[in-house]
Amino acid sequence: MKVRRKRDSCLTNFRIIFALFCVNPIFLTAQKETSGSVWSDDIFQKSLRWRIKTKRWTSSFLSTDYWSFVQSKTPSFDKTVASNVTTQFGQTVYLHCVVNSLGDKTVSWIRRKDLHLLTVGTETYINDDRFSVAHVEGSSDWPLQIKYPQSTDVGVYECQVSSDPKITFLVQLNVVVPKAEILGSHPMYVKIGSSINLTCVISESPEPPRFVFWYHNNRMINYDKEGGKISLQKADDDSAISTLYIKDAQPTDSGNFTCGPSNAEATSVSVFFLHGENPAAIQRDTSSSLSPSSTHHDRCVTFVAVAAWAFLR
Predict the structure, then answer these.
(1) pLDDT tens, 111-148?
(2) pTM
(3) Integer Cα distance of 41 and 30 in angstroms
(4) Left (φ > 0), alpha (ψ -120 to 50) or beta: where does 208 sit?
(5) What is the DSSP-derived secondary structure letter of residue 113?
(6) HSE of 246 in the Cβ direction (CA atoms, 13 Å)?
(7) Is-contact 227 214, C-beta < 8 A?
(8) Strand 144-146 versus strand 93-95 pairing type
(9) What angle, rounded to 10 degrees, do the helices at 38-62 and 2-22 form?
């Protein structure tokens, strides 16, 4: 019986203390004024100190500094990264995705047009070895690498972080096919002793070609001392220019000239020389190049054909 009474007494005291901690400050102030006991005053002081600490903690929780701290620990994207990327056909391209405060979260790449999962972390989940993540350990960049991009690779790619909720960064990929063109009239007519100046423009080429080979009648002349002066330079953001200059052109310079960039299909132009006022191609006299044996052979064939025709009559 005594144990039960002691337990009830403890429970009652606990209820009183709990009530005092939960009541509002006005009630506690009234209690302090109406009660002069040491026990009530001590409870009041403890409750007041607890509420002051709670208020300070709440203010700190709602402060800008606190939310700045929370946001600094939440994954976010670097929005200065390019979200529209243009590359040329066959040129390796990187779609960058910079994630700040990634923590233990994972970065994935998804092809939006068919929702195909390409990569998760550094692992590849597509049966196409052209796709991979070129992530360097310790870096916040998770670039998607696409080798030999084709026209079918054009579209939107999604960089996704496995936070809660998930956050995404979209990148548009464009693939252009470089084209080569020799400016001027086709064919080209020049006078003997004048110069030949051919300009080959490679357009839709974000990256300049690694090289441009020039051919004269199917023979490369880049390294010929007498083949002419050749240059290659970047014109603007998506084009390059290669020129072929031949001084004091002679009849041997007639024929077909071809511009062959490393990143585009070749293009050609025919050069003819003027005989007086009439355009004509300088052609070698093929009849003079015939050997006596070939001439004799042709005459024998003709004689046999005539004899056979006479016999059959």
Answers:
(1) 999 999 999 999 999 999 999 999 999 999 999 999 99
(2) 0.58
(3) 11
(4) beta
(5) T
(6) 25
(7) yes
(8) antiparallel
(9) 50
